[in-house]
Amino acid sequence: MARTADDTWGVGESVGATAVGAAEWRARENVRPDRLFADPYAQVFLDAVAARKIPNSQFTEELMARLQETDPHIVRGVRAQQDFVAARTKWFDDFFTAATASGIRQAVILAAGLDARAWRLQWRPDAVVYEIDQPKVLEFKDETLRIYGVEPAVRRVSIPIDLRTDWPKALREAGFDPTLSTAWSVEGLLAYLPASAQELLLDRLHALSAPGSRIAVDALDAAFFLPENLTRLGSFFVEIRAVMIRNGGDLPDTPNLFFDEERTELADWLRQHGWQADELEVHDVMARYRRRASEEDDAGVPHCVMVEGRLPL
Fold it and tell me: I need a labelling partner for 139 at 20 to 30 A (CA). Which of 115, 162, 190, 222 fits?
């Protein structure tokens, strides 16, 4: 599906397909003996996807074993991508855990997708978590967990709205208090926004942030949109997508979902607006959580930096 500035999607469609892919990697991580986090809900979402016959990748262990015999480099690349998602998930988990421990009781998860942190993390008794995403994505998520019969571990407010529209108005109308410190997460989002939409989103987020607020973002670095990197990433996805289709599954054409536009470095933007910002390169994050991939096997790992910002009190 070609991207436009005002396109929409559901689970399994366009950008919504990446939410299913991330859920698959979280489900795989959940059953590892050395797992970085517990997420039993990821498999619940995958089961619902299968029941609705929504296209998905289906990287089963049986398929991976077959590929190990014929295309071991693909297996290594897929494992590296899985390790990237696991490390990224753990990094955002740790961000919210630290923000909660500091006393922050208001959180906003932008582009929440099939993330289940409102169900699986520990929150303050008086906390509230706002989740914002496309209406059809949140409808699928809410209905699936309602059928499964689980309640969130925190007061959770679902806000079905496109992040390129007036989401701050919808957020305030849902009870968000801009005078309280807020923990914001922007995970797996910026590459799928036009540069102008990214700038607008950051301006709005900043305007809603009281002193003491925190933000966590996996941000594109300067190397992400270099032609050689896009070629590397594109070749990897073309190859594994062809393999998946031959084996009865599907995979989104992820590189074609990106908006290849020059944009401000996220840490620089935050500092220019009064935030304190720290950066950690993606491979350093993966190494922190014992998921570092070798250079020859990291074709599916995007060039990005994990940025954490704090607005001084």
Answer: 190
pLDDT one digit per residue (tens) for the chain, 313 residues: 567 777 888 887 888 888 998 999 999 999 999 999 999 999 999 999 989 888 766 677 777 777 788 778 888 888 898 999 999 999 999 999 999 999 999 999 999 999 999 999 999 999 999 999 999 999 999 999 999 999 999 999 999 999 999 999 999 999 999 999 999 999 999 988 888 999 999 999 999 999 999 999 999 877 777 778 777 777 887 887 787 777 776 677 776 787 878 888 999 999 999 999 999 999 999 999 999 877 766 777 888 899 999 999 9
Handedness of CA 159, 160, 165, 166 (dihedral sign): negative
The DSSP code sequence of 154-179 is: SEEEEEE--TTS-HHHHHHHTT--TT
**The token pair that represents 209 in the structure block:** 């942030």
